[in-house]
Amino acid sequence: MSIPHQLERADLLCKQRGVRFTPTRRNVFMLIAEYQGAVSAYDLLDRLKEREPNATPPTVYRALDFLLKQGFVHKVESLNAFLFCEHFDEHHPMQLLICNSCGLVIELHDEAINRAFEQQAEANGFTITNQSIEAHGQCHSCAE
C-alpha cells in the first residue's frame, strides 16, 4: 500500500479517535513508513531535521509515543527501534523475527501463538498489559 494511502488511513483514524495528527507526527509517520525495517529514534531525528531543522530528541520521542499509542508503529524492544505497522487499523497479535546479520525485521500475525501465550499467562495468574514477542536469528538471504 502506498505511503499517501497509509497517511490518509492514519488521518481518518485520528479524526475518528478525536486525536490530533500534528505536522510533526505526520512527518515522523511518513519517515517510518518510508524506512525499510526498524529505525532508531536518533536516525529518525536526523531525517526529521531535514524537514524540521529545530527538531530535538524530545520532539521525536513525543511523536513516537503518539504513533505507538495509535498502533501506527511497533517498538522493537531488543533493538530499541521502531517499525511501521501496515495493519494499524485493527488490533492484532504480533511476533517479530529479527535478522542479526542484516537487521531485517519480519512482522508476523499468528493468533495461535498469541492465544497460547495469553493462556500461559492466565494459568500463572498473570495479566498481560503489553506484549512483545521477538526472536533473533538469521534470515534466508543471510543464511545462504
Q: What's the short story on this structure?
A:
It is built from six helices and five strands, in the order ααααββββαβα. By secondary structure, it is of the alpha+beta class.
Structure, described:
This protein has 144 residues and is an alpha+beta fold. The chain has two domains: 82 residues, Winged helix-like DNA-binding domain superfamily/Winged helix DNA-binding domain (Arc Repressor Mutant, subunit A, Orthogonal Bundle); 49 residues, Ferric-uptake regulator, C-terminal dimerisarion domain (Dna Ligase, domain 1), CATH 3.30.1490. It is 48% helix and 15% strand. Strand 1 and strand 2 form a beta hairpin. The longest helix is centred in the N-terminal third of the chain and has 15 residues. The chain is globular and about 50 Å long. The chain starts with a helix and ends with a helix. The model has no long low-confidence stretch (mean pLDDT 92). This is Ferric uptake regulation protein.
Determine the CATH superfamily of the largest domain: Winged helix-like DNA-binding domain superfamily/Winged helix DNA-binding domain
Please give the domain count: 2
Name the average pLDDT: 92
Largest sheet: 3 strands, mixed
Topology:
Blueprint: H1 3-17, H2 23-34, H3 41-51, H4 57-70, E1 73-76, E2 81-84, E3 95-99, E4 105-108, H5 111-123, E5 133-137, H6 140-143
Parallel strand pairs: 3-5
Antiparallel strand pairs: 1-2, 3-4
Helix pairs in contact: 2-3, 2-4, 3-4
